[in-house]
Design brief:
Elements (H helix, E strand, L loop, with lengths): L2 H13 L1 H20 L5 H37 L6 H9 L12 H36 L1
Length: 142
């Protein structure tokens, strides 16, 4: 399998995380709406705020996943058959990576990118569970 094809596949996988970011935004809007209701109850308010905190965590991971996808797109455009050291060199020159850091191969990079995406999806799941708990606590309190 060519390196260009691998770059394109991993970019496509990472781009799927955009849907999770959209869902997170909708969940955050619902949590804000719940928190702004008149007297939502202390438990519902705390759970809604925890859901918003999970949205912030998701946003962090979404930014990291999006950055990785953009790096892979840049590799496809400029150096489709290059070694991953090219990414390290560019990041070091821009001050985004320490010069003393060891270079990783593609397999380690793919694993790291998938890990970031899993954490993003976990944060969206936690956000949804917390919002559901907030809604249920409000409903039970009525």
């Amino acid at each position: 399998m060519s390196m260009l094809f691998q770059l394109r596949v991993m970019t496509a996988v990472l781009r799927q995380a955009r849907l999770a970011a959209v869902i997170s935004t909708l969940l955050a809007a619902a949590a804000l709406l719940l928190a702004s209701l008149a007297q939502p109850g202390l438990l519902a308010m705390l759970l809604a705020l925890a859901s918003l905190l999970a949205a912030g965590v998701q946003a962090y991971y979404a930014a990291r996943v999006g950055f990785d996808a953009a790096l892979l797109e840049a590799m496809q455009a400029c150096h489709p058959d290059a070694a991953p050291g090219v990414i390290d060199d560019v990041l070091q020159k821009l001050g985004l990576r320490e010069a003393s850091a060891t270079s990783r191969g593609w397999q380690a990079r793919w694993q790291g990118m998938r890990r970031l995406m899993r954490w993003q999806l976990f944060a969206v799941g936690a956000q949804a569970v917390l919002l559901l708990a907030a809604l249920l606590s409000r409903w039970v309190a009525w």
